[in-house]
Amino acid sequence: MLLNLSILDFVIVDKMSLDFKSGFSALTGETGAGKSILIDALSLALGQRNEGGVVRLHQDKADISAIFDIKHNQEVIDWLKENELESDGAELILRRVIHADGKSRAFINGKVATLQQLKELGESLVDIYSQNSHHSLLKLSAQRQILDNFGGHSDLAATTYQLYQAWHKLHVQKIEYEKNALIYSDELAELRDKLRELKQFSFTLSDWETLQQDHVMMSHGNELIEDVNLCIELLEKDETAISDRLHLVQQKISHALSIDEKLKESSDLIDSINIQIEELLRSLNRYLQKVDLDPERLKDIEARIQAIHNFGRKHRIKPEDFESTLLTWQARMNELESFESDDGIDAKEKLALEAFNISAQSLSKARKTASEILSQNITAAMQKLSFSHGSFEVKLTPQDSTAHGLEQIEFLVASHLGAEPRPIHKAASGGELSRLSLAIRVASISKANVPCMIFDEVDVGIGGSVAEIVGKLLKELGHHDQRQVLVITHLAQVASLAVHHYKVSKTQENNQTLSHIHLMDDKMRIDEIARMLGGVSITDTTRAHAKEMLQV
C-alpha cells in the first residue's frame, strides 16, 4: 500500500509530500492544474522510462520518493530478500533522481538499483489504468493476460510457456540433426579427438602459471645463483661483512646502555636487526640447497610449454581459455552423443511434448472455469453501467499448440438485447468502449493481488446516473483493509463517494506556475463538489446539492 509520495522540482511542482490511506480516494481539480503529474511522478519512481522535460524550470534535478507498506505483500518481501535490498522494517522506499540532462539514478531502500529492478517491484505494488488504456483491451494478448490474472493461474501459464519453449528447442534440434546427421557425426568425431588431446595435457590454469614461473627461473638460473651467492658473501664472508659490522655496533650500544638506559630502544632495535640478518642468511642458504637447475628438467618444461602453445595455435585458443573451452566442448559432445543414444533426441522431444501437453491441458481446464465466472462478473458490471440487456463472453477457441496454450482467448460483447456477441472493437462504440473497459477492469481485478490501483480519468464520457454507479463500483473495489483505489476524476458523482478527497490546484508565483495537492476536510469538499457541479459560479443551490451528495 502506498503510504507517501514526495516530489521535489518535478514539472510544475516545487515541493510536495502526500500521505495516503487505504480505501477509495479521489483527486480532483480544474483542467491543467496538474492532476496527472502525481501519476507521472509515481510512474517514474516505479521504473518508467524518462521521456525528458520533467525537471522544473531553472532547477538541476527532480527528486521523487515513494514509501510503501509491504508487511502484507509477501511477493515483494521475497523479491527484496533475493536481491539483497530488504530493509529492517515493514516499509519499502523507492527513489528516482532525474537530472536536467536526462540522466537518472534509482534507489531501493537507499541502495543503488537499476530501472529494471524498480519496474519489477512496481508490478507487484501498483496498477495504473489510464484514460486511453482501454485500447490495450482490444489486443488478444491483453485479454489472455486479464483472464489468467483473474483465474489466478498466471504461474501455470508461465510454466506452460517455458515448457513449450523447451519442447520447441528440442524439436528444432531434432529437425536439424536429421537434416545434418552426417555433419554432426563428423563434428562428434572431431570433438572426441580434440578432447582426448586436450585432456592429455592434464591442464589447469594454476599449473600453467607455475610452469611459466619455473621456466623463467630456470632460464636465468646461473644469474640467479650468482646474485644469491653475492648477497651471502656481502653479509658474512667479505672482509667488510655486514654481519660483522652489525655485531660490532651491537657491542658498542650494549656498553653504552650500561651507562645510559635511554639507549634501551636502540639496543632492542640492533638486537632485532642482527636476528633478522641471521634469519636472512639461513633463508638464502636454504634456497641455494633447494634450487633445481637440472638442464633435463628445463628441456621438459620447454617441451610442455611448446606443446601447449602448438595446441592453442592449432585451435585458436589461448592457454588461459583451455579450461573453459574443455567444458564447452564436453557439453557439446554430450549433447551430440545424447542424440545418438537410445534415449536420444527423439525420446527427449517426446518427453518435453508430454510435459507441455500436461501443463497446457491443466491451463485449459483452469481457463474454462475462470472464463465462465469472469463472463458472468463482467456481464453483471456491464448491466450496472447502462448496458441493460448486454452480455459478455470470454470465448475459448481450440487451436494448435502454442507457447500460450491450446486455445485462443477472445472477449466478445453484445451491447443490447438480441445482439450477437462480437469482438469488442466491432461491437462497442467509443463511448461504450470506455464504459465497457471500466466494467472489465472492475470485474477482473476484484481478485487482484496488487494492493494499489490508480484510475486516471477512466470515467471520461460517462455522466448522470451511470457516473454514480461508477463511483459505487470503485468504492466497492476499495472496500479492503489492505487495498487502495485512487481515482483522478472530473465527475462529482464519483468524487463524492470517495473516502478521502484530494484537491489539485495551481498558483502563479515569481512568474512560474506551481501545482499543489492537499487533502480536504468536509467543508472544503463541499466547495469542491459544488465547483464540479456548477462550474465557475458556486451558488447556494449547487452547495446544497454538494452537501446532499456528500451526506453531510
What's the structural blueprint in terms of helices and strands?
Layout: E1 2-10, E2 13-19, E3 23-29, H1 35-45, E4 61-69, H2 74-82, E5 91-99, E6 104-108, E7 111-113, H3 115-122, E8 126-130, H4 140-151, H5 154-179, H6 181-200, H7 205-219, H8 221-237, H9 242-259, H10 264-290, H11 295-315, H12 322-340, H13 345-384, E9 391-402, E10 405-414, E11 422-423, H14 424-427, H15 430-444, E12 452-456, H16 464-477, E13 484-488, H17 492-495, E14 500-509, E15 512-519, H18 522-534, H19 540-550
Parallel strand pairs: 3-13, 3-14, 8-12, 12-13
Antiparallel strand pairs: 1-2, 1-4, 4-5, 5-6, 6-7, 9-10, 10-11, 14-15
Helix pairs in contact: 4-13, 5-13, 6-12, 7-11, 8-10, 9-10, 13-15, 18-19
Characterize the structure shown.
There is one protein chain. The protein is of the alpha/beta class and 552 residues long. The protein contains 19 helices and 15 strands. The protein has helices at 35-45, 74-82, 115-122, 140-151, 154-179, 181-200, 205-219, 221-237, 242-259, 264-290, 295-315, 322-340, 345-384, 424-427, 430-444, 464-477, 492-495, 522-534, 540-550; strands spanning 2-10, 13-19, 23-29, 61-69, 91-99, 104-108, 111-113, 126-130, 391-402, 405-414, 422-423, 452-456, 484-488, 500-509, 512-519. The protein has a six-stranded antiparallel β-sheet with strand order 2-1-4-5-6-7. It has a six-stranded mixed β-sheet with strand order 8-12-13-3-14-15, with helices on both faces. β10 (405-414) and β11 (422-423) form a beta hairpin. α4 crosses α13 (345-384) and α18 (522-534) crosses α19 (540-550). The longest helix is centred in the middle third of the chain and has 40 residues, at 345-384. The protein is flat, with a radius of gyration of 39 Å. The chain starts with a strand and ends with a helix. Residues 14-510 form the RecF/RecN/SMC N-terminal domain. This is DNA repair protein RecN.
